[in-house]
């Protein structure tokens, strides 16, 4: 897919304030600091479309971007940020649950997982929750440049094996690095295919 245009539209505090649900939508979620905003920038071939930061918790709202005037990308705030209060966490959970379950044009959620780590309970809990809600998703293992290929593939396999304990079918997965521009074509090809349906 050729990206002809990518524009920031709006940041919304809840699903009801999001733009009209009249275009296919793809959301990016995952642990705080896992690289959601950076991945969106890589996919769009832009440096500063989505705001990135070395400090976790940068993205706080539901951020919509309009791509090629015909579909939406959504950058979501991350989970698992240690420095938030109980009530902030509950707000996040409510906002995300409502958005994921009520947004009618949501085609797919990309769940980002840091490829440097062995399976984390937080990520497994999150994908299991998506399963219970019957929300389609794919896995994206990020920051592949930060460790060896062997370590990455070990961690990917371990995560899928963990899922296999409870899941009958495993989701598709991607391995990405924004530094090496890795994984871009496959993600965009999938979106292209879904948009054509
Ligand atoms: P929150 O919005 O705070 O939840 O974070 P986020 O998931 O949007 O992460 P963000 O894109 O802001 O990236 C966090 C940090 O990881 C930044 O310092 C990025 O430069 C770095 N980063 C993201 N992706 C990669 C990658 O593929 N490789 C490397 N080496 N660093 C990356
Ligand atoms: Mg972010």
TrEMBL record:
Protein name as catalogued: Probable GTP-binding protein EngB
Cited PANTHER family: ENGB-TYPE G DOMAIN-CONTAINING PROTEIN, MSS1/TRME-RELATED GTP-BINDING PROTEIN
Record-linked InterPro entries: G_ENGB_dom (IPR030393), GTP-bd (IPR006073), GTP-bd_ribosome_bio_YsxC (IPR019987), P-loop_NTPase (IPR027417)
Species of origin: Chitinophaga niabensis
Function: Necessary for normal cell division and for the maintenance of normal septation.
Pfam family, one: MMR_HSR1
Protein's gene: engB
Chain ranges of the EngB-type G domain: 22-197
Sorted UniProt keywords: Cell cycle, Cell division, GTP-binding, Magnesium, Metal-binding, Nucleotide-binding, Septation
Membership in a protein family: Belongs to the TRAFAC class TrmE-Era-EngA-EngB-Septin-like GTPase superfamily. EngB GTPase family.
Cofactor(s) for this UniProt protein: Mg(2+)
HAMAP family: GTPase_EngB (MF_00321)
Highest taxon in the source lineage: Bacteria
GO biological process, one term: division septum assembly
PROSITE patterns, alphabetized: G_ENGB
């Amino acid at each position: 897919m050729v990206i002809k245009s990518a524009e920031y539209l709006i940041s919304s505090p809840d699903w009801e304030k999001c733009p009209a649900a009249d275009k296919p939508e793809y959301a990016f979620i995952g642990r705080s600091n896992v690289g959601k905003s950076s991945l969106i920038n890589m996919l769009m071939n832009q440096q500063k479309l989505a705001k990135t930061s070395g400090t976790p918790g940068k993205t706080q709202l539901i951020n919509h971007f309009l791509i090629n005037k015909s579909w939406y990308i959504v950058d979501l705030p991350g989970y698992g940020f240690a420095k938030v209060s109980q009530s902030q966490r509950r707000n996040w959970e409510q906002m995300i649950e409502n958005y994921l379950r009520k947004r009618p044009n949501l085609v797919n959620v990309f769940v980002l997982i840091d490829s440097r780590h062995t399976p984390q309970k937080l990520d497994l809990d999150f994908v299991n929750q998506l399963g219970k809600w019957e929300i389609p998703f794919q896995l994206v293992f990020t920051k592949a440049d930060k460790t060896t290929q062997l370590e990455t593939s070990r961690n990917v396999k371990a995560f899928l094996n963990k899922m296999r304990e409870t899941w009958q079918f495993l989701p598709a997965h991607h391995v990405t690095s924004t530094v090496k521009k890795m994984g871009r074509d496959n993600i965009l090809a999938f979106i292209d295919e879904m948009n054509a349906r």
